[in-house]
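Quick one: structure tokens for this chain, please?
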Amino acid sequence: MVWLNDQQKIGVGLVSIGSLFLILGIILFFDAALLALGNVLFTSGITLLIGPQKTFYFFARKQKIRGSICFFTGMILVFCRWTFVGMLVEMFGFLNLFGDFFPVILNFLRQLPFIGPLLNAPGVRAVLDRLAGSRTSAV
């Protein structure tokens, strides 16, 4: 089991609350205030979760620079109240930045009691594996 220090626990909370605000902002017809607050909380939560130096290196890596530019440009557009366009640009950047984690998240969700059997159903499994980019092992 992985133990988190106090700073990382706060980071997990900020990422969770930021994600909740982003979802609520989208549900409430792209409410600029909720989206902006969600962006700030999500980004600061990631910084607290993995540390400032690792966060900088994550966003500044050569293969992630296009995603980083789109993600932060989308945040700026949301702050300027261009919420729909900003969220589209930000989602493109988010997928480029965090797309590598989707297979890991999908495998974790498949281990959960109620969600796992739904995600392991034959038709659903094939579609999600294709969307997440999961690969089957050759062994």
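The chain has a mean pLDDT of 92.
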